[in-house]
What we know:
By secondary structure, the chain is an alpha+beta fold. Helix content is about 25%, strand content about 25%. It is built from six helices and 19 strands. A five-stranded antiparallel β-sheet has the order 6-7-13-11-12, covered by helices on one side. It has a four-stranded mixed β-sheet with strand order 1-2-5-3, with helices on one face. The longest helix has 19 residues, at about 260-280. The two termini are about 25 Å apart. The model has no long low-confidence stretch (mean pLDDT about 95). Bound molecules: flavin-adenine dinucleotide. Flavin-adenine dinucleotide binds near residues 21, 133, 210 and 215.
Amino acid sequence: xxxxxENIQKSDSEILADYCTFRVGGKAKLMLWPKxxxxxxxxxxxxxxxxxKYIVLGNGSNVLFLDEGFDGVVIELHRNITGIEINGENIYxxxxxxxxxxANKAKENELTGMEFAAGIPGTLGGAIVMNAGAYGGExxxxxxxxxxxxxxxxxHRYSCEEMQFGYRKSIISDKHIVIGAMLKLKKGNLxxxxxxxxxxQDARRSKQPLEYPSAxxxxxxxxxxxxxxxxxxxxxxxxxxxxxMVSEKHCGFxxxxxxxxxxxxxxxxxxxxxxxxxxxxxxxxxEVRIIK
Length: 292
Ligand SMILES: Cc1cc2nc3c(=O)[nH]c(=O)nc-3n(C[C@H](O)[C@H](O)[C@H](O)COP(=O)(O)OP(=O)(O)OC[C@H]3O[C@@H](n4cnc5c(N)ncnc54)[C@H](O)[C@@H]3O)c2cc1C
């Protein structure tokens, strides 16, 4: 065993279905749980030295692992890269923290601006990478700066502008690792913050199939359209491949309806893309990231 990872928590018997909200996926060749920046850098150096591919994982709420698993190293940040610090109207959040924990901490401190994020089931790191957003808010609106390990394994602080946030994207490639971010909020009123969070939570519960495993919206919103509406109008509500299904509650969600496999989900996504393209000449681009 390489010295680089001898002190890092690890396992070679983890099933990826246990680490993603879709609840599918085979074994990871190796899983590492670094507990600080140095260990993250050592983990990457190890992968490079051994010629192994790697991915960084938050809460796995926007990924699809394959049935054959991942023949590389999964660097998991949700377990150990944690911590939230409040400083006036600023809040520093470590990459592995749940976005909902940060939003709740902001609420406790009567800080407004993060209400939109309370119901997004990802980590801060995943939310930064994806520029996660909901109900009119997105990470771009509240990021002051982001601390990143760059492709040269150097620590770098990117301003919000340098992050080049766009719709569900940022400058972060699969060779950058987010380790934390400073969010800038505003002093607010506790009752108003609680009311807004409750309103958004109720909206989610009534519109989204939260009772089934999924990765949220499966496809990005195509310019000038809504993916869910195009899918529904294509007659695909409830469409099934194996145990995977287009949700009847919200056609934008592919759900793990009944012990589906990753292959079921991929075939279903391909069918949906093909049919929507034929009917409406619109290309649906996956929002969920397929990890190969
Ligand atoms: C029920 C449900 C509802 C959802 N609702 C919304 C919503 O309203 N809005 C929305 O935007 N999304 C939504 N999502 C999708 C998802 O929660 C977000 O995209 C979230 O930001 C992903 O965070 P994560 O920690 O789970 O990332 P993961 O799924 O773990 O990773 C996503 C990508 O980011 C990379 N990554 C993760 N952490 C890091 C890091 N620290 N450094 C570098 N790369 C990293 C991964 O390699 C992967 O490519 C929903 C998902 C579900 C299941």
